[in-house]
């Protein structure tokens, strides 16, 4: 285990409303972006304003970590685990595993991996 992805748990149907709220507060306009991690079809961890350092872990098509939703005493938690030994000073990365989208909604990937898929989704 490397770190737990923490933040506020919200219902997934509310993510659009929260993003509009953040836009109104100028949060995305500052280049910060949103930090929302889908635990499942129902719940999302929003780390935009109340998260920890896990929200800054970047995507890679050849990551050194992976994420899992685990259950502890009936509560869901997102945990980042190492895939291998991580060297001192090495950037932590994991595959965001975004759902596949059509060509008009593709998000470009800039991870720089040798086997980069070119898109996050």
TrEMBL record:
Source species of the chain: Spermophilus dauricus (Daurian ground squirrel)
* InterPro entries for this protein: Post-SET_dom, SET_dom, SET_dom_sf
Give GO terms for biological process.
Answer: methylation; positive regulation of DNA-templated transcription
Q: Name one GO molecular function term.
A: histone H3K4 methyltransferase activity
Q: Name one GO cellular component term.
A: histone methyltransferase complex
Residue ranges occupied by any SET domain in the UniProt entry: 1-97
Keywords, sorted A to Z: Chromatin regulator, Methyltransferase, S-adenosyl-L-methionine, Transcription, Transcription regulation, Transferase
Q: Which residue spans adopt a coiled-coil conformation according to this UniProt entry?
A: none
Task: Write down a Pfam family by its short name.
Answer: SET
Is this entry keyworded tRNA processing?
no
Q: What is this protein called?
A: Uncharacterized protein
Superkingdom in the source lineage: Eukaryota
PANTHER family with a match to the protein in the record: HISTONE-LYSINE N-METHYLTRANSFERASE 2B, HISTONE-LYSINE-N-METHYLTRANSFERASE 2 KMT2 FAMILY MEMBER
